[in-house]
Structure formats: structure tokens, C-alpha cells
Amino acid sequence: MKILVVEDDKTVGQYVKRGLDEAGYRADLVGDGDEGLRLASDGHYELLVLDLRLPKISGIDVLRTLRDRGHGIPVLVLTAQDAVDFKVQALRMGADDYVTKPFAFEELLARVEAIGRRPKAIAPPVLRVADLTLDTGSREVRRGGKPIELTPKEYAVLEYLMRHQGRVMSRTLITEYAWDYHFDPGTNIVDVVITRLRKKIDHAPEPRLIHTVRGVGYVVKA
Amino acid sequence: METIRGRLTAWYSTALALTLAAFSVALYLARRSASFQDLDQRIRSEAALSAGILAESYRARGVLVRPDTAGRPQLIQDVAALLEVVPDFLIITAHDGSLLFASSDARALTFQQVEQLREAVHAPRGARPSGTLRIEPAGPTIHFALHAVPDAGPQLGAILAGANVQTAELGPQQLLSVLLLVLPVGLVAALVVGSWIARRALEPIGQIITEVHEISDGRSLHRRLAEPMVKDELGRLAETLNQMMTRLERSFGALRRFTADASHELKTPLTVLRAGVERAITTRGVPQDALAPLEETLQEINRMTELVDALLTLARADEGTVPLHKEPVDLRAIVAEAQETGELLAEEAGVHMEVATPPDAVVVPVDRSRIRQLLLNLLTNAVKYTPRGGSVRVQLGQSDGRVKLSVADTGVGIAPGDLPHIFDRFWRADSARTRTGERSGAGLGLAICKWIAEAHGGQIDVASRPGRGTTFTVTLPRGS
Questions:
Q1: Which of the residue ranges B90-99, B130-139, B143-152, B237-246 has the most confident prediction, judged by mean pLDDT?
Q2: Strand order from edge to edge, sheet including B156-164
């Protein structure tokens, strides 16, 4: 899928482009609204990632012009504004979704997947690590075939770790994922969730699946 | 009086009443003075007329006095008949002071009273030519005038003409009663008319107040008052207000641009930072030594983002332009949602947590994410300031059409001197409050809590005793 990224800040733009490329999309980057509008109107792109503050023509105007011309290309808006009305304005103008800066790339990717007309290829419905399974559809978790009851936060943390099995996930990234808004508890609340998860999942003599990476976070691996 | 209109009417009426009263008194005094002058004039002419009659009669007859049957000298009958036409009191004395004639009014007096008049005429000390005399006992007060009769023969003494002062008082008194009748009527009329005029004059001000109120709600600052063509006081007032609103609009616009610029200028570098750190942290094969500082950096970036968000939220809240997206929400759901997070926080801190919600739904129109933020802020604070072994209790209830959400802890409490400041921005209690090793926030959490409660038409209150605990209570109206 071809994606057009319109972002005037080069570093952010490059980061988004590279991330999308790595995720299997083909992304192009332009730096101003004028060119963004011209390219988006061509019809070569299937999705537009649009910063709202752009030189020449603002993102809102690009969006408005596209929609006025009857162009239905899905648009994901990048905004620095946290105000709800700003997001509402963007959605009213015909944006499909928005991401507030600074964003976790994971969040951007999830939203691109959600509004792009493509089924989720990255996330298999059932995640598996050794004899631990997690069904993302039914939210059922089993270890060695035995069902395990998890609270919503325990489930979210485990799902995140299992999605990225074998990779060290930092506490901050885990917190961001499990608490879907900016939430700074001031303490390592993730540690508590992990302790609870271990009690439910990692019983001896079975091999431990959740490993601590001191000072950083956790990793799930067999 | 509450209104300018009332005060104007009151002042105006008082001034009018005083003017009318002064005018009435002056009018009465002038009328009375004129009336007494008339009276004096009258008695002087009466005395002169009587002297004229006596002189004429003496010239014609040569004799005016004859002794009566008792041998007392009397004015002869024909002359006396002539003098009867003179009204009021008329006394004529003989050369030796004896009474020669008394008019019919004078004859109505008692003997003692007549004697008093006679003595007044014949006072050996050289009588006053005119004056006021109170006839004793219990007689009328009169003005009198004396007149000599040199051309009426040697037997005649002098003439006294007098008139009852009551005849002079009558006119002024009538005037006074008319004035007393007219005055209140005039005053009431003045009150009504004055009040009407004041209302007419102040009506445009009321209109200006209404318009300014509508404009200053924060979203209609582009509107202006209609300026009348005439540059009277009201025209200038409207003009001044419009100038003020132009300046307000300009500064609000500047603030709006500033918050938008600040959002962008602060968050774009944060995005860049975050992108780099996140990328590094999620790259496979990064050594563990390198991961820890990256994780710390990421944490700091998040704190910074939180701070920027909080600052911008408060800046926009000051401007009055943060909209709330209210929808009917069962607050029990928000409490239940926050409960797990609260329990996790409490478990980490070794604190016991309990939640009490009513069995029935507590549906209130609120901005779900804001109320969740409010509750989590309070919960985080409560856990943070409660020592190990303490407890935190969240309670939801309703009474009198209001919903109360409280978070109570058995923590270190807040010093009474600090209580008034805890909702201030960037305010922090003595660092002794926090458990050691924990970083405190930027001091904006409670300021935001206060704003959220107030933006919902509610309030946030705090009760605390040092060493015993703190209770924050958020009160929200049921139908805001």
C-alpha cells in the first residue's frame, strides 16, 4: 500500500516514513501542504498521513480541499494540539483518525492499519510462546491448556509482551500501551502487574516465560 | 436602593421635596407679612376716618360730648351713630382718659378688657402709636393704632383703632392648608415621573450590560456593541467598551496563537526525541547497558509531554476555550475502570484500598476522559502520601441532586497552613510529605483537578488533618 506522508519536520517525517517502510508499506515524504495536496490528488496513494501545521497550505486546508473535491482518500492526521475540539474539527473536516504528538510509533502503525483498507497482517489471532497461548479475539489465555483468568490490565500487559516476544519492552512502552492515554503513575506500576502475572502463569517446574531486564523492562520468551 | 434608577429617583424626589417645602414656607411667610401690612393699613385708615368724622362733627356742632343720665360724659348720639359704621375695635377717650365711645366689637368685650384698651389709649407714659396687644384675660390679640384728635374740641382725648389678628391669619392659613394638600400629590407625581425618566435614561445601559455579557462569554469576542450616532455619555461608553473588547480579542488571539505555537514548538522536538529513543529501544540486539539510559530518557520525555499538556490545558482553560464533551455516563463505570489501576498502585505502595459505590446507576453528563483523569490524579496522590499499612477509600454517592465522589486516605495529611494553596499551580508541599526516593510531579495535578471539577459546574473540596489523613471530595451537579 502506498502512503503519502506530509510533514514539514524532516526528522519526524523521516522517522514515520522509515517506520512505515519497515512495516511493509511504501511511503513517500513531502514537506509542504502545496505539494502534499498536489500529490494526494493524483490518486496514486491509498492513505495520507497529514501534519496539520504545514508551510504554504495548512493541513486543515489540504484536508478541506481534498474533501471539497470529493476525494475519499483515508487521512490520518498528526497534531500537536491536545485540545479535544481541535481533533473534533479535524474529524469533522473528513479526517479518519488522528495521532497526537509525540506519539508512540506503535500507535501510529495501529491506526494506519485500522484505517488502511487492509486486514491486520502483523497480528495473528492467537499469540503463542512455548505452551502459553493468548487468543486476541476471545481474550482467552491458557498455559499448558489450562485456562487462566486475567484482569484487563494484566491481559493488556501480557498481550503487548507476547506481540513482541523475544524483544525487551521497556516499562514506559508497556505502561503506554496498557493505559491508553498519558498516565504517569510516578511509580513502576508495571512491576506489580508483572508480579501478578507471574503468579498466574510462571509456576515451577515449568520454565519461566516472563524475564526481567534490570533497569529497563521485561521480555517474554521461551 | 439597589439600582441607580432607584437612587436617582430618591435623590431627585428629596431635592424636589426640599425645594417645595422651602418655597411653601417662603410663600406662607410672604403672604402672612402682606396680610399683616394690610391689617395695619386698615386700622390706620379706620383711626384716621374716625378722627375725620369727629373733627367734621365738632366743626358742625361745636359740641361732641354730653353727660349721660349718670353724669358720665358720652359722645352725643348722632356722632356715635356715624362712628358705628367703622368696623373692628374703636375706642375714643376723653381728655381726662374716661371712655367716650366703644364700637360694637369693643362693647362685646368685658368691662375689664375694655379698661385695658382704654388704658392703652390714655397711657400716661406716652403711648406707643401702634403695636400688638393681647387683651387679658382670654381675649383676642389685636393690632392697634392710636390717633390724636386735635381738631375735635378740648374734651376729646385720643382714638384707638384695632383689629383682631385672626382676621389677618385667616388668608395665610388657608394658603398653608392648600399647600399641604398639594405638596404630597406633587411629590408622588414627581416620584412616578422621576422614576420613569430614570428608567428611560438608563435603559440603554441595561441593554449594554446584556450585550457585553453575551459577548464576553469567550466565544463571541468578535462581536461589538452598536454605537449610537450621538456621542453622548452612552455613545462614549459603548465606544470605550468596544475599544476594550478589541484589545481583549487581540490578546486572546495572541494567547490562542501562543498555545498553538507552543504546542507545536515543544511537541515537535519531543516527537523527534521520542522517535529516536523508541527506535533505539526496540531495535534487536541492543546491549542491556544501553537500554537502561534509553528507558530513563523515554520516561523523561513522557514526563515532559505530560507537563506540556498540563500547561497548555490550563492556559486554554484560562481562556475559557477548552470544550468538554459531555455525555451521560454511569460514574460507577469510571470508578470501576480506575479501580484496578488504583489497586495496582496501592499494592505497590503496601496500602489497602477499598471502593464503595451505590447499587443504583449514577448517571451524570460528564466528559468521560476528564473525570477519569481527575479520579486517577486523586488516587495517585492518595497512594503517594499514604505510608505503608494505611488505606485509601474511594466512595461514590449522591444526595440532594448532587453527586459526591470522594477519595480519602489515612496518610500524612496536609498542614492547615498549606490547605489554601494545594490547588495552586506549581505548588508543592514540604518534601517531607513524599516517601523518599520518589519524584514528585510538576505540581499541576490538583490545579487540573480543580479546573475539571469547576468546568463541570461542580467543585472540589479538601479536608485534612496532619498525621491522620486527607479527603478530597468532588461534588458534581446531576444535570449540568
A1: B237-246
A2: B99-102, B89-94, B156-164, B141-148, B130-134
Residue B232: half-sphere exposure toward Cβ, Cα within 13 Å: 6
DSSP secondary structure letter of residue B129: S
Q: Which residue of A has its CA nearest to B315?
A: A83
Q: Do domains A2-115 and A126-220 have the same CATH topology?
A: no
Instruction: State the CB neighbour count (10 A cutoff) for residue A173.
Output: 22
User: CB distance from B257 to chain A under 8 Å?
Assistant: no
Residue holding cell 436617582? B8
Decide if A186 and B325 are in contact by the 8 Å CB cutoff.
no
Instruction: With beta carbons under 8 A apart, name residues in chain A contacting B323.
Output: 83-85, 88
Cα A82 from Cα B345, distance rounded (Å): 26
Q: How many Cβ atoms from other residues are within 10 Å of residue B279's Cβ?
A: 15
CATH 1.10.287 holds for B233-319: yes
CB contact under 8 A, A104 and B260: no
CB B388 within 8 A of CB B350: yes
ipTM of the complex: 0.74
In chain B, residues under CATH classification 1.10.287 are: 233-319
Using CB atoms, which residue from A82, A186, A191 is nearest to B313?
A82
- Give the architecture (CATH level 2) of A126-220: Orthogonal Bundle (1.10)
Superfamily classification of domain A2-115: Response regulator (3.40.50.2300)
User: Measured at the alpha carbon of residue B371, what is the angle toward residues B368 and B376, in degrees to the nearest 5?
Assistant: 120
B404 closest CA partner among B433, B378, B436, B369: B378
User: Do the Cβ atoms of B278 and A182 come within 8 Å?
Assistant: no
Q: What is the CATH number of domain B4-170?
A: 3.30.450.220
Question: Which CATH superfamily does the domain covering B327-477 fall into?
Answer: Histidine kinase-like ATPase, C-terminal domain (3.30.565.10)
Question: Given an 8 Å threshold on Cβ–Cβ distance, is B263 in contact with A81?
Answer: yes
The pLDDT tens digits of the residues spanning B404-440 come to 999 999 999 888 888 888 888 877 765 544 544 455 5
Sequence spans of domains, chain A? 2-115, 126-220
Where, residue-wise, is CATH 3.30.450.220 in chain B? 4-170
Q: What is the pTM of this model?
A: 0.60
Is the pLDDT confidence value at B378 over 90? yes
